[in-house]
Write a structure and sequence with these properties.
The protein is an alpha/beta fold and 213 residues long. The chain has six helices and seven strands, in the order E-E-E-H-E-H-E-H-H-E-E-H-H.
């Protein structure tokens, strides 16, 4: 049976699973943990459709992290409100050290209902591709030498440190993954550059040459 009410949905996301908790509107509204679903888009769509049949308004939230902004785009595309929360700005109680997926989802739902969450700006796919390009380029610059001089931070993408033989140099698997990220990002760069290209005004502001004196 459909309820004409608003609920706040907290999502604790990970690579494989999403923990879901809901908080009903109002100070005394019920807060409960629904369970876990797969992080696949079809599972998310089934969850949103199921909740939309029971409640009038849905307000989703989840922490910004390595899962990216695809979940936000899917939920907003389905016609519901969703914010991506800055993890460093989430209010925490002093001495609270126990962290579980269930507890994090419940906390997000309650804080979202109270209006105490700070949302971050969600970039469009083009801006996100440029970000990945810049990060991968910086990581590849760090890994320019042999394995002994390679910084551990350049292998965060792959999450592993074994070295492989690549031509005259030996580089980490993570660094090889960063190089692949650069190539993927470059594939969508022409369309971005074409859209953001400045007008041809003939002014020295838009040229690489210095103005003549």
């Amino acid at each position: 049976m459909r309820q004409d009410s608003k609920i706040y949905v907290g999502l604790d996301t990970s690579k494989l699973k999403i923990s879901v908790a809901v908080a009903e509107a109002g100070r005394d509204g019920d807060v409960r943990f629904i369970g876990e679903i797969d992080s696949a888009p079809d599972a998310v769509e089934r969850l949103v459709t199921k909740l939309a049949k029971r409640h009038r308004d849905l307000a989703f939230c989840y922490e910004a992290g390595p899962t990216g902004y695809g979940l936000h785009r899917q939920i907003t595309r389905l016609g519901h409100d969703c914010i991506v929360v800055a993890p460093s700005l989430i209010p925490k109680r002093p001495g609270e050290r126990v962290k579980t997926n269930r507890r994090d989802a419940l906390t997000l739902a309650k804080l979202h209902r109270a209006g105490e969450l700070t949302a971050v700006w969600v970039p469009d796919p083009e801006h996100e591709a440029v970000r990945e390009l810049v990060r991968a380029r910086e990581a590849a610059k760090i890994c320019g030498g042999p394995v002994s001089t390679c910084s551990p931070s350049c292998c965060v993408t792959a999450g592993s440190s074994p070295a492989v033989k690549r031509g005259p140099r030996r580089i980490h698997d993570g660094c090889a993954s960063n190089v692949s990220s650069i190539r993927r990002s470059i594939s969508c760069w022409p369309s971005i550059a074409k859209r953001s290209r400045p007008p041809r005004t003939g002014s020295s502001v838009w040229t690489n040459k210095l103005p003549r004196r």
